[in-house]
Amino acid sequence: MMKLLLPFSITPDLEALSEKDWVFTSDLKVDTSFTPLDWNSFDESALEMSLKLSNQAEGSFCFYRYALTVGEMPCDRFLKTLAALKFDELFRVNPGDADLRFRPEVIARIIASFAQTYAHPDFILMGRQKQVGDNACTPLLTAELLGWPCVTQVIEIEPADEHRLRVTSAVDGGTAVQTISAPCVLSVGDAPCTYLRVPTLKDKMTYGKKAITVMKLEDFPEAEVLLSSPNAELCSLTPIHREREGVLIEADTPEEKAEILYRDYLKGRLERL
Amino acid sequence: MALMKREQIVEGLIEILGSENVITDEQVLKESSNDRYRKYEQVCEVYTQPIPAAVVYVHSTEEVAQVLKFANEYQINIVPRTGHSAIEGGLETALENSVVVDGSKMNKVLKVDKYNMQVTCQCGVPLQDLDDMLQEQGYTTGHSPQSKPLAQMGGLVATRSIGQFSTLYGGIEDMVVGLEAVFPNGKICRIKNVPRRSVGPDIRNIIIGNEGALCYITEVTVKIFKYRPENNCFMGYTLDNMKTGFEVLREVMVEGYKPSIARLYDPADGGMSFSHFAAPGKSVLIFTAEGPAAIAEATAAGIKEIVSRFTECEPVDPKYIEKWFSHLNWGAEQIAQEREEIRATKNIGITTEVSGCWDCIYEIYDTARKRIMEEVPDITLIGGHSSHSYINGTNMYFVYYYNIVDCPPEEEINKYHNLINQIICEQVVKYGGSIAHHHGLGKARAHYVHEEYGSSFYMLDTLKKAFDPNGIMNMGTLIPLRK
């Protein structure tokens, strides 16, 4: 049986924020509590990939899945969905008051400790980054802490045999296909399959009530230590200026407008190419 | 059946409209053979309906009259269309060699009459454009269906549409002042714009909701209202029981309040939008009040007082509701994303909306939901919400998702969607409600027209025979085709 650890994160739907909502509080946070929550899309791809492995193996070999998230109680709804999709064990680490937005080293430490202490997985599958924080470091730091290799920009995985996975990843100018032995961290990038399948109501009723093990940061002392001695301090945040200027081209005919567009806006750029 | 061959139909249409307005491109024809009732077939690009002979673009009422006369003479089935946002099969070309008459190029706003508070526009004016234009000037149509970014005025009137602020502004039937429509024999009829009249039956209602089965709507005049979003008040509550929720809605309506939004979501449906503040198993009640500041404030205060009588209802921060309010509508971007999700997950979401008086709406909701859970395979979510309330009852908008398992695209509609529709319609008929609240009967629910109308079917049938004796107007819609 191949053991898979799937750390995932739940993020606020930032699309639901209007420009006026991007106001920083004194502790440099943006209030996103009024927006719905959703899967982090890279993690969602990783979760779905893990389920596809079972379909592809067609019963030849089995997979045991641990789902792990760091977050508050609203994350339980997502863990219940994974339970209904027959994930085997579900864990949530409650961060309490800790601000982990820009602390990939803490998240990586939690994942690594969980892997070493509880799950002992063959592979860790996780998204490469999330919208909030957006550092793309966590999978790499996790691999480093565990002393495991890490394949980045994974876009597809298939079972190779009982102990190995065939991993396709995006590389400069193409894709690489490697047969990877355990243990390894797989960092999922822009995979074509982004959406997690949906459990039926019957499966929700049958499997969705599986217990969720809730842990605290204190259960991960090495991570807690990192919190008290940050190696970086958040000093400021600045909104990205997304305004665009528009110019109305005025002329009598479409031909004249096209001529102005070419002469004033395109010609110079084309010449610089 | 048409008395002409396909090529002759196309030639005749080119003679009337010119070749540039007669489209025979195969892909366009295929995509014009259905609507979002067959959403999964659309996603899979499988077309099971007869492919029309042509899609034609009309630019004037006179052109519509000429096309209809031609079709009437040669018994060619006409499917009127504007925004192509229908979801009940009303735009399906059910007969061979149909012609889709697209009015989307009749898109001029003819008159904004701020003194008499009405706006006149051609059938192809997009509601979003019209309302954006009016709002810039401090006015609104008050009409805001979820399809606002897609729908156009002719189709909205033809389907007897309703907007999300209907509890205050009413349905489209309450907004339409006057109309212009073309009948199959080419006769152009105009109904003048007056505040009210007592001169016999209200003939606007022959046209409103005709779903293209009696005539082609070319022009509409609707009321406009002052637009005062700065006065909007938002209220939200969580509660344990849908039954209590219906009671709250009833009290608000019976006491005479007119919130622009009065909604009740069950836990399953609400869970998709409100899980960030409503605990699992909780229903959600939402109200918004708008209008002049004094009225909005008084409405909000009155509603709060009524809800406070129901101790089960716990208020939530109004900002949650305000956030939700700013993302109400569905446009092309959401539809494109939905198609991608359906392709990837084979999970599809559909809605069916019905109505009933206060004494039966809960039974309709509860029994239909239970039957669907028991009788339909592969269901992933069944829930619903009430979103349009009246003094004597409310609607129920069933929302359901299912996984499409071991089923080719052309069989999906019968294996799942029609089965669910059947259950809902059976329960509605059993308890005395209406099987369609605002999407129209289309072709999807035309099979239930006799149960829906009862003895009054005589009147609908007589209208059809009188106005469309040759049977050329959107056949299969409202009244099912004989097999």
From TrEMBL, chain B:
Keywords assigned by UniProt, alphabetized: FAD, Flavoprotein, Oxidoreductase
PROSITE patterns assigned: FAD_PCMH
Span of domain FAD-binding PCMH-type: 48-227
InterPro entries cross-referenced by the UniProt entry: Alkyl-DHAP_Synthase, FAD-bd_oxidored_4_C, FAD-bd_PCMH, FAD-bd_PCMH-like_sf, FAD-bd_PCMH_sub2, FAD-linked_Oxase-like_C, Oxid_FAD_bind_N
Family statement: Belongs to the FAD-binding oxidoreductase/transferase type 4 family.
Protein name: FAD-binding oxidoreductase
